[in-house]
Amino acid sequence: MWHWGVVIGVGGLLGACGGEDAEDCCAPPPPNGQQTVLTIEGRVTDAPIALAEVVASLGNRSFSATADSNGFYSLQVSAPVTESDRLLRLEARGRGQQSFVRFRSQLASLDTLVQQAGPDGSLSAGDNIRANVTHLSTAESAQLGSQLTGDADLETALAEVDPERLLNTAASIKLLVDQADRYALPDSVTDTLAFAEQAELVEQFVEDVTSTTQGQQDFQDAQTATADDPNVVAQEDMAGVPQRLVTIGYVPPMAYNYFNLVDVYQFEADGTGLVFDAVRDTSTTWSQSGNTLTVVPDDPERFEYSVADGSGGAINAVDTELHVEIVPLGNGIAQLRSYYETTYPDDPNASPETRMFVSNVRYLADADVRAAFPAVRAPVGSGVSADVYNTNEGVESRGLTADRLSFQSGGMGSAAVLGEDFTWTEGDDALSVNFVSGTRMRYRLGTRIDDCAATWLTESEGADASRRVDLGLAVCDSGAAFTPADIPGYYYQFGVGDEEASDDDVVGFGLRFDADGTGAQFVNEIRRVDEDGDGEPEESEYYNQPDSGDRRPLESYAEFYWALSPDNTVVIQRTEYYDGSSFYPGCEPGTADCYTWDRRELVPLTIDGQRFYWMEVRQFDLSYFGGSTEDTTYIQRFYDYSATEVPVDGVSKRQRLERRESESASVVARHQRVQ
Fold first, then answer.
1. Which is it for strands 353-365 and 333-343: parallel, antiparallel or unpaired?
2. 293, 296, 297: which is closest to 280 by C-alpha?
3. Cα(269)–Cα(243) distance, integer angstroms
4. Gap between the Cα atoms of 518 and 569, Å rounded
5. Cβ neighbours of residue 217 under 8 Å, at least 6 residues apart?
């Protein structure tokens, strides 16, 4: 039965036996000197892959069988007990017109599989769904790689699987197999496994397929059919709905430039509940059907926008949230199906349309949140820049925004931006911060980045009873100060390299400060575009590093003016002026008709060698162009400094981070401050 939990350990991740009948279910391993023997029975399927050749690999041993016309197979695996801690992998190849089908399924160690199989010594899909070799198991295996050596490696790799890539790859393979007359493999690969292992090819395939209305529908159908297929995903009814379910959207592991990554669903026994994220909360009703939870908001979201009317004009459209379906896929991954009704208020003849959007997330249920996100420790006698719930006038309205929190002994503290005192307590569940206004914050540790920065799972309950949650940066605040002569140079956001593609040989995004009080935003990235129309993307390097030199006004919208203010913040201004007929960038602040449309203040927090941590206070003012003045945004950032431009060659972010970690010593006091 499905329990909506993430069980720690490979046995739980890949299917395990237990409960009242555990003693009968779990067979003991054979004594030394004997063979470990296991029969595996499963199916090679998306649509059934008839007569597929199935090979089980265990170290340098292999065992084979041929599937029947419906894709069913059975084979026996045996190995000395000294080798039964090795991982077992299944691979299946199609025949004839399905010869391009190559599926793989990565299972646990032979020892673990014997435990899952029970006393009959036969492992089936009911014991472990990965006994079926499918398009989904292939997509998963492509991310796991081929260098895993044991259960511990497998457990770590499974926890790092990208849910979005997993389901996109699986849906792509399903289209290639089920609709081979419409969709074909790229010319550079000959089978589905080789395709799945190349993320860029999959991304381009998805982009090409979804470029048409029919392709969008085909792809979405493949995504949902994958989750609903009992031969691909275990479909057991849920034994119990969790009281609390946390879903977390996936971002690249070295990217910290996102917000609104988390949703919290709370379920009451009477069918009511609550859902909240970084920007809103609403009460809900919920229902359960088989493997799926359906959540209906009492206060649905509405999105208004314009669409083409078919005659060169535009009409208004409104998307109103209907409900969301949460479908667990195993391994702590779920598919979210969000349903909206689209109406056209300007067109009385237009009928409402129901639309579905599919996303794939990781989830944690009940106590698993505490295991995955331990409590933060208070940085007593120091400070930290972390998110707080702030609804003050003029502050960006999403609710959670960066602040500077100062923690004193005796459980007291204060927040600089919010302008309030608080009390704090440390607990097993979270670091609790309670403001005098009634707002309550809870902080849990996510991922450690370095001795100063980490991601924190931040949850709030405002004095207005609003609930918010997100996963974002927190950085130590030692009250650092900028030295004017040391500011000119190059600052690389989140370190040198592109956080979206950590292995690319590029420097990513950054800021350049020149000694004359000007500077620029710059970006260096790899762009993948199918330039010759052959269906395969070509890689090209893009580098935009504008520099007007002594010319005034500045010639690029990416350039800016900067100055160090009396309160030791760096003030950046991007400007524009209007000559009566056209707009131009780069006028000098304070000159006639010069308008600052982007103003940023960089507030120093900590400087650790060449790494600068600051809080960025930013406001866009577009009223001069008929727009509006936006609320002020407060965010944490860290940048790596170089006095001169870093050469592009040999500077991938992963290499840089590994080098920094190997060269830096652990600073225990600072480490404790941000825990």
1. antiparallel
2. 297
3. 8
4. 16
5. none
φ, ψ (nearest 5 deg) of residue 347 = -125, 100
Residue 299, both tokens = 């206060």
Closest CA to 452 of 263, 338, 282, 605: 605
Element (H, E) at 195: helix 192-196
What six digits make up the tokens of 116? 């899952």
pLDDT of the residue at 515? 96
Per residue, the 3-state secondary structure of 244-265, as one string, reads EEEEECCCCCCCCCCCCCEEEE
- Give me the residue label for tokens 């405002």: 462
- For residue 83, the SS3 value is helix
Joined tokens for residue 381: 């006698």
User: Which residue in 328, 176, 344, 352 sits closest to 265, CA to CA?
Assistant: 328
Q: What are phi and psi of 586, to 5 degrees?
A: 85, 20
Residues lower than pLDDT 70 in the chain: 1-33, 236-239, 253-254, 397-398, 501-504, 530-537, 624-628, 648-675
CA distance 222 to 179: 10
With beta carbons less than 8 A apart as the criterion, state whether 170 and 138 touch: yes
Amino acid at 416: A
Q: Is 326 helix (H, G, I), strand (E, B) or coil?
A: strand
The pLDDT tens digits of the residues spanning 151-175 come to: 999 999 998 899 999 999 999 999 9
* Number of helices followed by number of strands (H, E) in the chain: 12, 35
134: left (phi over 0), alpha (psi -120 to 50) or beta: beta
- The pTM of the full predicted model, rounded to 2 decimals, is 0.85
Rounded Cα distance between 445 and 666, Å, is: 18
Sign of CA pseudo-dihedral 474, 259, 265, 440: positive
Concatenating the DSSP letter of every residue in 84-135 gives TTSEEEEEEE--GGGTT-EEEEEEEEHHHHHHHH-TT-EE-TTT-GGGSEEH
β-pair type (570-578, 594-608): antiparallel
pLDDT digits (tens, 9 = 90+) for 113-132: 999 999 999 999 999 999 99
Q: Which of 398, 436, 438, 400 is nearest to 419 (CA)?
A: 436
Q: In Å, how far from its chain's centre is CA 299?
A: 26
Q: For residues 22 and 598, what is the distance between their CA atoms, to the nearest angstrom? A: 64
* In contact, 248 and 447? CB cutoff 8 Å: no
